[in-house]
What does this fold into?
Amino acid sequence: MNIGILGTGVVGQTLAAALAEKGHAVTIGTRDPAETMARETAKPPARVAYRDWQRANPSVQLATFADAARSADVVINATSGASAMSALESAGANALGDRILIDASNPLDFSKGMPPTLTVCNTDSLGEQIQKAFPRVRLVKTLNTVTANLMVNPGAVNEGDHTLFLCGNDADAKATVKRWIGEGFGWRDILDLGDVTASRGMEMYLPIWLRMWGAVGSPMFNVKLVR
Ligand SMILES: NC(=O)c1ccc[n+]([C@@H]2O[C@H](COP(=O)([O-])OP(=O)(O)OC[C@H]3O[C@@H](n4cnc5c(N)ncnc54)[C@H](OP(=O)(O)O)[C@@H]3O)[C@@H](O)[C@H]2O)c1
It folds into this structure.
């Protein structure tokens, strides 16, 4: 499969490495490929500069947001929440078309330091804003409630016995993504929360997720919905 990942941060890098290892053709999208490759230092929370990561992962291509989306069967949004809309706008509605768009982003605003605040909440969400701005895209919100390393390796915690949330308006797209991340990464307990408005809760979960990170001392944790 051709996979376009919008985002050069730790989420983009982690998903790209895992997917490339499974034999997918992965293109990462960025604002300016030359500028991204020229950066000498990592942008936290990424630990390595993108160009060093790229050298270690030569099969992954780097392109503009638009080219990464245009060449893909499936697109993943792994851009910062504050910039997601502008990154998707530069990809463009034509390049995104009616593709499945997996949205792993969170609308976190770090501009006033820690803890971050949510740029949108309660009666709206970033997932909904993206779906509204790109109505043809089949958005599936998922993966945003776990740290990057756990996204691709749920078995690293509690032998994979914990819950991943998912939502979106398109039932076929959700079934495809559910199967894809289940078979691809090993997620066994994927809970469909309904239409895209469930993005509100999935994004508003981040403040408690951040407190749990502080309390546990590591981001390698998750919750399990016990029925
Ligand atoms: N870190 C985690 O473990 C984790 C877990 C779950 C969800 N998430 C969510 O996943 C998303 C990605 O997180 P991350 O830590 O990997 O990366 P990030 O630092 O939040 O975002 C990096 C990406 O955002 C783009 N970007 C930044 N400012 C921009 C602007 N003004 N216009 C267009 N694009 C811009 C960057 O573009 P360039 O490539 O051009 O610099 C880069 O590709 C976030 O929404 C985050 O909340 C993160």
In short: The mean pLDDT is 97. The chain is about 40% helix and 20% strand.
